[in-house]
Structures are given as C-alpha cells and as structure tokens.
Specification:
The protein has 5 helices and 12 strands. The chain is α+β, with helices and mostly antiparallel strands and about 220 residues long. The chain has 2 domains: about 55 residues, no CATH class; about 150 residues, Alpha-Beta Complex (tt1808, chain A). A hairpin with a 4-residue loop joins strand 8 and strand 9. The longest helix is centred in the middle third of the chain and has 21 residues. It is globular and about 50 Å long.
C-alpha cells in the first residue's frame, strides 16, 4: 500500500487515494497523521462518515439512491443469513481495520461465524478482520481508481467475494479477486459463491426500491 509519508502535496495525496475529489479529504488532522482515535472522534461528531486510509481521514462518497440500494441488499442477505445463523451482517457504519493504517466501511459486509473468536462479536470499535463478503454500492463521487484500490485492500486482507453495485446501469460486478470479474444485469441471478452457498437472488431485486412511486 501507499506510504502516506511520501506525499508532499495535496494533489499527490488525492492521487494516491484514487484521484478522489478534494472535498472528501479532511485536512485536520493533517493527512498522513490521523489515528484511530481521530477517526472515532470524526465519526462521532460529523457526517458523512469517514474512513481511515494511510493515516488520512477521507469522507465516504454518499448518495441517497445508493443508500436505498445498500439497505435493500442488506435486508435480502439478512433474510438468508440470520435464520441459518451463518454469521453477522454490518451496514456502512460497521467498520473494519484491514491494515495498520487503514479502516474501511463497506456499505454491506458479511462476517461468518468461523471468523469470530469463541463465536462472540468483536468488542473493538474497528475489529481487525476482513469480511468474507463485501458490498460496495457506487456513488457518483467514487472513482475507478479508488474502487480498484479498495478491492486490492479487501482481498489482500482476506475478503473472498466483493460485489460492486452500479445503480445507474442496475448491474453488479462480482469479483473473486481484485481483477477476476463477471458482470450481472437485472435479468440475471446472483449467488453467494463459496462464501454463501445456496444463496441466490434476482439482481433486479437489489434495485426494487428505485422504482418506488413509478407504478
């Protein structure tokens, strides 16, 4: 991963973070110096939520439409996971410490029971574990470079399956590695692969709330 210490300008820092917009970069504390405590303080008092990336606070790109889709996917997965007691699901405010200086907040995350020490939920605010399944619902503020970097971090940390959800095209990019991908459209059915065997759902169901009031 990129070492924040080598950045000498804001432009360099933004490029290292995936060419994100400057509006999402928190300048206090100074990029490259932020700690877990700073992250907790920022998320306790400010919105939108921040992630900690290379000791830098970065606001999550947010959009109401993306939030609706994330909530729908969370509900669909919960209806499968909960009755089978397969593990737990977290929303966007559930954060995971992937690397020493990086904490990510996937829009939806599944952690299996086998990942839980003694079968108990983590006590830490930012547990040091990688969800087996990560769902990221794209917002207009997300860049391709940013999402590519996220995938590398997730898989490097132990994630086995990543869904990148595109609300505009109503499609899901299913990744089993940072670059191995297949694209599913509304007429397709998505499954849980080796992470959630027997799970399946029409992709169209992920976007059902976007048609609210259009009947």
């Amino acid at each position: 991963m990129v070492n924040a210490a080598v950045s000498s300008t804001v432009a360099e820092r933004l490029a290292e973070l995936g060419h994100i917009s400057a509006e999402r970069l928190r300048l206090f504390p100074a990029p490259g110096t932020a700690t877990l405590h700073d992250l907790m303080e920022a998320n306790a008092h400010c919105r939108p939520l921040c992630e900690l990336i290379d000791q830098t606070l970065v606001e999550k790109a947010v959009r109401f439409e993306s939030s609706l889709v994330a909530a729908t996917i969370l509900a669909i997965l919960h209806n499968f996971v909960a009755p089978r007691r397969l593990g737990f699901l977290a929303g966007a405010d559930g954060m995971f410490r992937l690397l020493a200086s990086t904490v990510r907040a996937p829009d939806v995350a599944f952690v299996s029971r086998v990942q839980l020490p003694d079968g108990k939920l983590p006590a830490e605010a930012y547990p040091s574990l990688a969800p087996e399944l990560v769902v990221e619902v794209l917002s207009p503020g997300n860049t391709k470079a940013e999402m590519s970097r996220k995938r590398v971090e997730y898989f490097h940390s132990g994630t086995r399956l990543v869904w990148m959800v595109d609300c505009v095209n109503r499609s899901v990019a299913v990744y089993t590695s940072p670059s191995a991908v297949r694209i599913l459209n509304e007429e397709d059915t998505i499954d849980g692969g080796e992470v959630l065997p027997e799970f399946s759902s029409p992709v169209a169901d992920f976007f059902s709330d976007l048609d609210f009031g259009m009947e």
